[in-house]
Amino acid sequence: MTSGTDPLTSIERELAQERRAADALAKRLSAGSDRLLAIGKEQVDAYRELARLRVQALAAAGEGALAVPDALDDADRRVSDLLRSRQRTADALLADIRAADAGRAEREAAREACAQRLAAAAATVDAAEARTQARLEADDGYEQALADAHEADRIAMHADDKATVSERELDDKGRAFRGDPLFMYLWRRRFGTPEYRAAPPFRWLDGKVASLCRFMTAREDYARLLEIPGRLREHATACRRRADEAFGRVHALDQSARVADGIPALEAAEAEAATALHEADSRLEADAATARDLLERQRQMAAGEDDAYRQAVDVLAAALRADALQELHQQALATPFPEDDAVIARLETLERERRQLGSAVDELQAAVRQRQERLRDLESLRAEFKRRQYDQPGQGFEDGMLVATVLANVLGGMLGRDALWRILDQQRRSRPPQSNPTFGSGGFGRGSPWGGGFRTGGTGQRGGRFRTGGKF
Length: 472
Hints:
It is a single chain. Mean pLDDT is about 80; it is low at about 60-65 and about 455-470. The chain has a three-stranded antiparallel beta sheet with strand order 1-2-3. It has about 475 residues and is mainly alpha-helical. It is built from twelve helices and three strands; from the N terminus they run βααααααααααβααβ. The longest helix has about 70 residues, at about 70-135. The protein is elongated, with a radius of gyration of 44 Å. The chain has a domain at about 145-250.
């Protein structure tokens, strides 16, 4: 049997791999977006070089200067200011992400320590209960009290059964009496009893009716039929009261023995460990929400969806769309100077790279979104696994290979979660405790004071996993 924490470890390992993959994609996307901006700036620089060459040509011909370089210089300054501000924001975001990663790693380690502490506390409670039960089994007085309780419980159940059968017979056998209108008329008038009251004429008539339907004989039978269930039920109630008293004595002995052996204090430590584990899980869930927000902001910056990037792109686009630049480009194509030709070739190369890189950036954006969605799915899977308490102390899975295979298929996207939960429920097993939860007063179907170890829920509250149902 494999431990209940093994699938959780696999899920967390997959989460760590997915985070690394998402981070690598985000870095590639950021590099691509930065390169797109750099291409825009290089295009501006190229046009500035064209303008400089044109100014030199105009100066040699004695013509006026161009205003294009000033406009390009202004665009370059504005873009540089935006990018410096954006870099500061990116640096702060990266610091927050690294701090969140470090905090998550610490809290995951703390959570693992809490889980180990809970498992140890549960095992301690279980071992202590087993020792207490062994001591009680060797106590003749306790064994006699337990035997008396079982006997009283047996008698009470037998009495209850007899009373129930008699009540059913009353319903069946009394149907004939209740269906006779003459009999029921006299029965309701209390005929034949000291309570009967009637005037002489009616008394004479009622006597005739009684003779006609043989009422007096039937009345005795019906009275006896009514009396027996009541007496049996009264007897069953008294038997149950004595059984309850006997059970209470055994239960008190169990509780006293547990207190004497310090089990309540051990259970308090177990509950404290369970609460600490629950709080650790809550902190990790909060960390996951914070990490999702930070990663989304990082994705937006990497994809160039932040305000500073958009403004820089708009400034560059406006500068490169200027009519003066287009005219400058056409003039450079018309001149025979090799310097102009080199700049034009550079602009064409930059434009090709921009188009190719733009398509790659779009694909990277889609990949990053897919990775983030996968991260959310894995975090949800981990949270649901913990909510179902598969990783609680004493829990495991009978066929570890089957569970690992199904989980791998779910993580690989070949199976849905429903298949995983179905297999986990089918394979789920509780490791047998050392103590017996049906020992002593735990064997009467009224809840058990035993079985504290490996019975603690995720919130520190004791569940009823080992408590018996029904009657002993």
